[in-house]
Amino acid sequence: MKFILAKKLNMSSVFDEKGKIIPVTILEAGPVKITQIKNKDKDSYEAVQLGFGTKKRITKPLLGHLKDNGKLRWLREFRIKDSKDLENYKVGDEIKVDVFKEGELVNISGISRGKGFQGVVKRHGFHGTHTTHGNKDQLRTSGSIGATTPQRVIKGKKMAGRTGGERVSLRKVKIIKIDPDKNLIYLKGAVPGKRGTLIEIFN
Prior knowledge:
Layout lengths: L2 E13 L5 E9 L2 E7 L1 H4 L3 E6 L7 H7 L7 E6 L14 E2 L9 E7 L4 E3 L1 H5 L36 E3 L3 E13 L4 E5 L9 E5 L1
Antiparallel strand pairs: 1-2, 1-12, 2-11, 3-4, 3-6, 4-5, 7-10, 7-12, 8-9, 10-11
C-alpha cells in the first residue's frame, strides 16, 4: 500500500505523445513524515499517521506528540490492511512523491469547495415551478414538503441548505506526470476542493 498527502495548487493542461490535450490538476505532494505507528495491541487497529505542511503555532500537547518532526500543519491516518506492511514504516521516516509512478491509478479524497446556503434548484437540481400566469415569486421553490399523514416533514427530505464542504472521494485517478525535484504530481481531471485544500492520495 502506498500513500501520501498533497496540497492542491491549480489546474493546467499537458499534451500526450499523440498531441492530445489532457486536463490536469497540479498538487504539491510531500515530503511527508511518519509521526506515529498504530498497532492492534495498543490501539486495536493498524495504521500509519502522516504529517504534512508547516505551521507557526501549534498546541503544546501536539508539539509533544510530534517531538522532533517539527510543527506540522496536517495529520492524517492511513489504515494498513496487511500487518506485514507495518514493519516497513518507522516514526520519523520521510515519504516522497517518487513512491508513485507515472500512469499509475490512485484513489484520492478531499473536502469539496463550500458554496454556502443554497436553494433546491442549485443544491438538488430541481427544475422549479411553471412560469405561467398566476405564478409569482415561486419559480425556484421546492413546492410541498409534506402530506396529510404524517403531520411532519419526513427525515431526509431534499430541501434548501448548506451546500458543499463535504468529503469527496474519487477512484482510479490516473497520474499523468511526476516531478520529484519540485515534489509535484499531475493528476488527470479535476480534484475536489479549492486551492490549498489537503488531498489524500493512496492505492
